[in-house]
Amino acid sequence: MYKYFSSAYKFGGIAGAFSVLAFISLSFLYPDPTNLNLVFGYVITPVAIFLAIKFFKEYSNNGYLSFAEGMSVGFVAYMLEAMVSLVGIWLVLLLHTTLFEQIKESKLEVLSGSKESIVAQVGENSFNLTLESIRNMVPWDIALNDALWKIIPGLFFTIIISIILRKNPN
């Protein structure tokens, strides 16, 4: 079993650590690092999945890769990335409550700044529900959102990369 997932553990863990470091670095530059960290995740996730599957294919599986093997390795890579990112960002926000309050305030400002267009599109009730959910937001919500936005694209990228790198023995 280790043969199947050794590269996935390495690249998923490294990508998760980079994601946490990116969140911390971006927090020094912007009051709300969450959106740019999501963009960073869209870049690092496919790179980590590609490298995990490629290293598995070349160094653990003699140059062969079935679609199922690629999906399994990719799944472990993006799930580990998401879990490391979730725990890391959650701990950062728990330890630095001023950063969390700064993010929350920034999200409230963005919401109030676009109130008219939101109300016109989805109605007053939806706007008020969104406003209330942001007011009740906790650090776990931000960390979970970041992790989910690594899992969803991770599945998509894993399918594509597994198809591209697939090579079965004749």
TrEMBL record:
<dbReference type="InterPro" id="IPR025250">
    <property type="entry name" value="DUF4199"/>
</dbReference>
<keyword id="KW-1133">Transmembrane helix</keyword>
<feature type="transmembrane region" description="Helical">
    <location>
        <begin position="147"/>
        <end position="165"/>
    </location>
</feature>
<feature type="transmembrane region" description="Helical">
    <location>
        <begin position="76"/>
        <end position="96"/>
    </location>
</feature>
<keyword id="KW-0472">Membrane</keyword>
<keyword id="KW-0812">Transmembrane</keyword>
<feature type="transmembrane region" description="Helical">
    <location>
        <begin position="36"/>
        <end position="56"/>
    </location>
</feature>
<feature type="transmembrane region" description="Helical">
    <location>
        <begin position="12"/>
        <end position="30"/>
    </location>
</feature>
<protein>
    <recommendedName>
        <fullName>DUF4199 domain-containing protein</fullName>
    </recommendedName>
</protein>
<dbReference type="Pfam" id="PF13858">
    <property type="entry name" value="DUF4199"/>
</dbReference>
